[in-house]
Design a protein that fits this description.
By secondary structure, the chain is of the alpha/beta class.
């Protein structure tokens, strides 16, 4: 998987609203994960290239489920954001020891359509986790990963290995990998223009005139 620390840091300095606006303008409006996938705390933010995992509920031996789960922890690459299509809204697909392990291994965050547990610990740890809910119920004997580094679909949004992802308090947006750099460059230009509009208004310019001057609001 291709990682680019410089591009990751540039994306991390952006915000999801501006990224969505740019992608919509390029014909990629179906780029958002469902709005009920939210960060465990308002200050959590994640950015980086995507590593995908999909899994499903199933009755398995407890040892086998943990063997499969720790195998995932071993595979998640440094510098990536894990996107997990869990197909499960009952179990926690992230917990404290897993979050700490991923953080120690250099993974930049975790997004799932499932739940999380040990959320207070994860918040104190500062590892970015975006999920649909919270529950003490874990995966032991009931859920395993099925595939890695293959396309996943969450809420109708298709996410491919090599795409890029940004998550903040407003939600999660996915950037197609082939256009990640030009999109991020355009977002940076948009944010610069927005700052110029803001400055003009704060200096007393009529907001409509500020919009007409910069064609951005």
């Amino acid at each position: 998987m291709k990682t680019d620390p410089t591009l990751t840091e540039r994306l991390a300095a952006c915000y999801t609203g501006a990224v969505f606006d740019v992608l919509r303008g390029r014909g990629h409006a179906n780029c958002l994960l469902p709005k009920d996938i939210v960060p465990l705390s308002e200050t959590m933010k994640l950015a980086g290239p995507v590593f995908t995992m999909s899994g499903s509920p199933k009755a398995v031996d407890g040892h086998e489920s943990l063997l499969a789960w720790t195998g995932f922890l071993s595979r998640a690459p440094r510098g990536a954001v894990v996107v997990c299509e869990g197909n499960d809204d009952v179990r926690a697909l992230m917990g404290e020891l897993s979050a700490e392990t991923l953080q120690m291994r250099g993974v930049r965050g975790y997004v799932t359509d499932g739940a999380s547990r040990d959320c207070g610990f994860i918040q104190r740890l500062g590892f970015p986790v975006f999920c649909r809910g919270r529950t003490p119920r874990d995966v032991v004997g009931t859920w395993t990963p099925d595939a890695f580094d293959e396309p996943v679909v969450i809420g109708g949004c298709r996410v491919l290995p090599g795409d890029w992802i940004l998550g903040d308090i407003d939600g999660v947006v996915v950037i197609p990998g082939a256009i990640a750099e030009p999109v991020i460059s355009e977002v940076e230009a948009v944010m610069l223009t927005e700052n110029q509009v803001r400055k003009a208004i704060l200096e007393g310019m009529d907001p409509q005139q500020a919009y007409l001057r910069h064609r951005k609001f």
